[in-house]
Amino acid sequence: MEHASAVATLDARGTLTGWSEGARRLTGHPAEEVVGRPARDLLAREMPPGALSELSGSAVLRRRDGSTVTVSLRGCPLLGADGTPDGYAVTVEPDDAGALLLTGETFQQASLSMSVHDTRQRYLRVNDTAQRMLGVPEEELVGRQLPEVMEEVDANGSGFLRHLRQVVDTGRSARYETLTPASSRLGEHAWTIEMWPLRDGAGDVAAVAVAGFETTEQHRARQRLALLNEAATAIGTSLDVVRTAEELIDILVPRFTEFASVDLLDWVLGAEEPLAVPAEDIVLRRVAHESAAQGLPRPSVRLGDTDVYPPWSAPARALREGRPVLTGPGDPDFDRWMRTRNEQVPANRPFRDRVSSTLAVPLRARGTTMGVATAMRVTPRDPFAPDDIALAEELASRAAVCVDNARRFARERSTALALQHSLLPKGLPGQSAVEVAHRYLPSGSAAGIGGDWFDVIPLSGSRVALVVGDVVGHGIPSSATMGRLCTAVRTLADVDLPPEELLTHLDDLVAHLAADGGDDEAAELGATCLYAVYDPVTACLALASAGHPAPAVVLPDGTTRLLPVNAGPPLGVGGLPFEATEVVLAEGSVVALYTDGLLEDPDHDVDHATTELCRALTAPANSLDALCDSVLKAVLPAEPGDDVALLLARTRALGTDRVATWDVPPDPAQVAGVRRSVTERLSAWGLDEAAFVTELVVSELVTNAIRYGEPPVQLRLIRDRTLICEVSDASSTSPHLRRAHAFDEGGRGLLLVAQLTQRWGSRQTDDGKTIWAEQPLPPE
Questions:
Q1: Distances from the Cα of 83 to the Cα of 11, 16, 75, 80, 580, angstroms
Q2: Minimum mean pLDDT among 188-197, 411-420, 519-528, 563-572: which range?
Q3: CA distances (Å), 400 to each of 264, 363, 369, in order?
Q4: Minimum mean pLDDT among 493-502, 613-622, 708-717, 735-744: which range?
Q5: Which residues contact 260 (CB under 8 A, 6 or more apart)?
Q6: Which of 493, 495, 574, 565 is nearest to 530 (CA)?
Q7: How far is CA 592 from CA 372, 496, 582, 718, in A?
Q8: DSSP secondary structure letter of residue 603
Q9: Is 425 in a helix, a strand, or coil?
Q10: What are the DSSP E strand ranges found in 722-758?
């Protein structure tokens, strides 16, 4: 209050005409030194531009001793007789008035964008920051609404006017977030807007104050985090290289960039080993690309095509250097690349002229570079920033790992498939017991190729073995185990073991394999198998199962059913017996053997799938091959999760006109009569040319059975694709081929049989053994 008595008077020209004692105490200047001088001489600095017209403001006065003092001044006009100001009386304002003035300066100079609007959403006051932000002076804003200055603001859905009306109507503050588009005067920025009512003395809303906080960095950080979170689940949903690249593009466009592409080195799409990145021009294959908006030209490289990237281009540099490359207009390499592109594809030049920034990021995983992802931003969007580079690296890294996983899966799948195809029968061996057709469909799931297999094995006596099996697990280990089991089954089948004994030996083999591999691999070596033997002479099918689904049969009258099978344990369990089932089938019956992948459907249970299989087997078909296709179409799930093997066999029968049987008394004198009977039967069959060899074979085999075997002895001739001679006796001792010495009286019979026939052997039976020999039929 010490300045309260400081008063000075001025005339209309600004000359001091009066000076109080308080003014002297304040400044140190006596009245005689200042009266008659211009008041401007006492100012240490010029007054603010609006202070004179408003008759108030802050001033800095120079004291007599050279120091300065800041005071708040208020002027009062002194009116003459005609009512016009003749001069002014200037007084020093109290301290609280200075506080009010500072409050106004706080609004005006605030770093936030602040404004005041009337109840009709028109500007009343705008601070300096808001004026700079809008690029419009206050005098052009007052009395106008924001959309009149920036049409795109409310057109973009920010709701600025709506929130202003809400504050006026409700009298409550409002807060919301908005984003201005890149095409607006403000550019692409995020804002948090605060609005609160200003009330008059009566408590009514007289105006609305607005403050804008720019939150662009926070908004972009949230966007980047959201992209990363989405990428964690959206990239790598399938073990497919191209699909993984497409998923990366879907993440990048349009939220991160206006255009993005993924180009891979050719070896990534095959099963080859990784190759080094070329030093010069790099050839890449385009696997995915996308443009953000309509009107952008189509990419210069079509999907699936290759393109050569020169060494100075951003993708080539990123591949060679193994790091992100950020470039744009003004960079000599970028300008050179764009000129080259414009010469190659002139139609896309308008798009390239708008490119503000290009970012190329290598796709690297486990130390291997597989390709590059390229992103381009166009004006008016801001160029890529350092945070964008870090985000792109993270996204590319995730995609690269998924691409490498898909590549490794494809390579392993190709290897497993090649291994499995090499082990599965390419052409079924010649036999006449059954007509067969088969299908094998490898799994397309992420688990990889399974261990399904099937086989058709000719046996002695015109019989045939039908085999189908399934190894637990997927991938190369399962295929390798399948190969072992397939080979073992063929070896055991050659010994001509009954189905239940063969599975017992196979079970022991799996147990030994599991033991050799350690406890951790024991479960992986589990398998199921169905082994069946069909005899066309007796029309009997003997089969045994090791945890495998029972086969289905379609009888000639069209009825279908599952064959009764004693379900044994899966192979490798050990300690439990296998039992065989025998069933006589009418000629022309169709037996269907399959793996469980045919019936596994998440939408249906096994019983329903089995019913559908039986129904599908009765569908009309011109051939077994056509029936295979129709069964798969009708029964197979839409997306099978496992391998599928299907083997169809239509039975044939050898009638009595093609089989001859003799019971031979255990007397060597009877051999001559047997030879005569055989000769007569061969003559009736029109096989006189085979009589000589057949007589020798019969004579040797029957004689050995009488001499070394046990009765009863039986001889059987079968005329099939070959002429088969079988001699059975009750002894279980198997014959052995040996080389007789010069003075030995015997031991040359089997050697003679082996030399005269196509093949020979013996098999154990329930009643003893059977020795057999086959010789080709003479040409008709």
A1: 15, 21, 17, 5, 132
A2: 519-528
A3: 11, 5, 9
A4: 735-744
A5: 248, 249, 252, 253, 289, 290, 373, 374, 375, 376
A6: 565
A7: 50, 23, 16, 27
A8: T
A9: coil
A10: 722-729
